[in-house]
């Protein structure tokens, strides 16, 4: 199973290593999915472990895991003062919505804002600029489900 927390921590550490001190996390609600809880925890751990943690301004924003929700939440977050200089998104779909919001606000990426996402299901390479994303081992994650489902149904040769 993927280590969501470590991946989020690594993405956040990279943002902080690049000098970002105003960072935001956009995506999900902790009640929705274990990945949300783990990714938010990794985001917060990286901040709290950073030597300059007292100089880091961070915010967490709930958001459905869809492009349109990412766009709407992105408009809200990017209109705040002070505006974040880096945003980590729960999914690549949300990140694409935030990129659209940044474009609408006439921001230049990555000069004005750095954005990263999660999943790397192909969308990250199709948008401009291309998205920094955490690749998850989709085949490994699906293996337990495939094994459970194959045990649930008996398939007899010659029968649909």
TrEMBL record:
Top-rank taxon: Bacteria
Instruction: Give the Transcriptional regulator LacI/GalR-like sensor domain ranges.
Output: 13-143
Q: Name one GO molecular function term.
A: DNA-binding transcription factor activity
Q: Which UniProt keywords apply?
A: DNA-binding, Transcription, Transcription regulation
Say if the entry is tagged with keyword Transcription: yes
Q: In this record, what's one Pfam family? A: Peripla_BP_3
| Name listed for the protein in its UniProt record | LacI family transcriptional regulator
Q: Which organism is it from?
A: Sphaerotilus natans subsp. natans DSM 6575
